[in-house]
Amino acid sequence: MEYENAESQSIEITVDRGVMSADLTVPDECKGIVVFAHGSGSSRRSPRNRFVANELVAAWLATLLADLLTPAEAAVDERTAQIRFDIGLLAQRVIAVLDWIAGQDQLRGLPVGLFGASTGAAAALVAAAERASQVSAVVSRGGRPDLAAGSLPSVRAPTLLIVGGNDADVLELNRFALAKLTGEARLEIIPLATHLFEEPGALEQVTALAQEWFRRHFAITSAR
């Protein structure tokens, strides 16, 4: 994707078992950075997350979409579908991305947000609990925050849970998670939307909610 207001680059982040590939886009007048945590067999090429990321860049927010699994792990997961549910591992990979950001002169000091989908939402929330001083806001899209149940009371970052109105099972799991979050938290239901928000206009509503949430809380962080 080419942007008029931003520079994009492919990067690699070294972790204990290899290298994670990621795509970083930084607009000219950057107001913060949003890290995307994918889950359930998805990758940084997820068309839904890239749609959201593109709109965030247009709103002057940097985005970093990383594959949380190394190529070798992804190959194993494709056969077994097991690693994608290893929330502890995925959370440590999100933390590795946060550490990488903290080491970059261009990005250091920017407010940081996490955008998680499916099991990636649980990983984002665990990471937010462990790095409370670094994460300014979290957004979950059709996520499984219930899988981070043990960490939810420790999450201090304002958290927005977005669920489709017709995604009944996931909606109940998000209500369960909302009750365990002790910091600022909100549940937004997109009427008639299903799990992947494929209905006309549904993903646009997700994007607008995420954009407003990040910009508002990044502004609060920057004002401190």
Distinctive features:
single chain; 224 residues; alpha/beta; Rossmann fold; 8-stranded mixed β-sheet
Give an account of the 3D structure.
With 224 residues, the protein is an alpha/beta fold. The chain has one domain: 3-Layer(aba) Sandwich (Rossmann fold), CATH 3.40.50. The protein has 6 helices and 8 strands; from the N terminus they run βββαβααβαββαβα. Strands 1-2-4-3-5-6-7-8 form an 8-stranded mixed beta sheet, with helices on both faces. It starts with 5 loop residues before the first strand and ends with a helix. The model has no long low-confidence stretch (mean pLDDT 92).
Secondary structure elements and pairings:
Layout: E1 6-15, E2 18-27, E3 33-37, H1 47-58, E4 62-66, H2 71-80, H3 87-102, E5 112-117, H4 119-130, E6 135-141, E7 159-164, H5 168-180, E8 185-190, H6 202-223
Parallel strand pairs: 3-4, 3-5, 5-6, 6-7, 7-8
Antiparallel strand pairs: 1-2, 2-4
Total number of β-strand segments? 8
The CATH architecture: 3-Layer(aba) Sandwich
Share of β-strand residues: 15-25%
The helix content is 25-40%
If strands are numbered along the chain, what order do they take across the biggest sheet?
1-2-4-3-5-6-7-8
